[in-house]
Amino acid sequence: MKNILEEVSTLAQAAHIELPPLLQALYRDGLTSYGKDRADWQANWEHYLQESPPALASSYDFEWLDAEAIAETIKGWLHPESQNGRSFFPFAQSGAGDVFCLTTHEDEHEGECVVVYIWLDSDAHTIEAFSFADFIYSRLVTAMTDMSHLLDDLSSAANARQCLLADIRRLSAYLPADDATRLQAYLERPVIEVEVTYGRRTERVPCLIADEDYKLLMQGKRASVDWPVHIVARWDVRPVLPA
Q1: DSSP helix/strand/coil, 56
Q2: Helices 4-14 & 21-28 angle (0-180, nearest 10)
Q3: Is this model's pTM higher than 0.90 or not?
């Protein structure tokens, strides 16, 4: 029986996408899995979130795809035959079905995989990061600026902070040393509240860092940028037929 790293490596190879070493390590070490199985996760999810969370468990609206879901997403939507020859490796999704993918980039990063966010029902796609390591790092930094989404499950800011810190500590072992050091410098920070504006609405949210700290941590990192590439909608795609 294949493990998930073997399965996803086969899918990536078929899509002509090279999996970044960091992502390979997360698959190998089980950091993209939710418990031993569905029953284990349902019974122990709170313990996992606060002690040994899946990678980016502290990140807003992010869920890892298993090998079966990756294969289905490629076959039923993001395959070159229907996407103007472009290949993708979808590794995670939002609750609405938008997907995080690896793909190649045409400019100065030609041949390297970037992380893109593809909307299910919009053309507002973005390049989230120009390397997978930067993607992990920036998601953790962003989680430090607003932990309110964690309160839905973990009920208190203290529990949300514990989840975030466990996520940072766990992923620090995989990140470049400089990035890990920058994140770890904030692990002793207490929870604070800052005002965040959403359109016409302003809310106070629990967080570990304010705007100035965010800017400091993101120095040298490229922020999310628009990706003006046309993606054929899922419902307009014909699935790949068996050979």
Answers
A1: coil
A2: 150
A3: yes
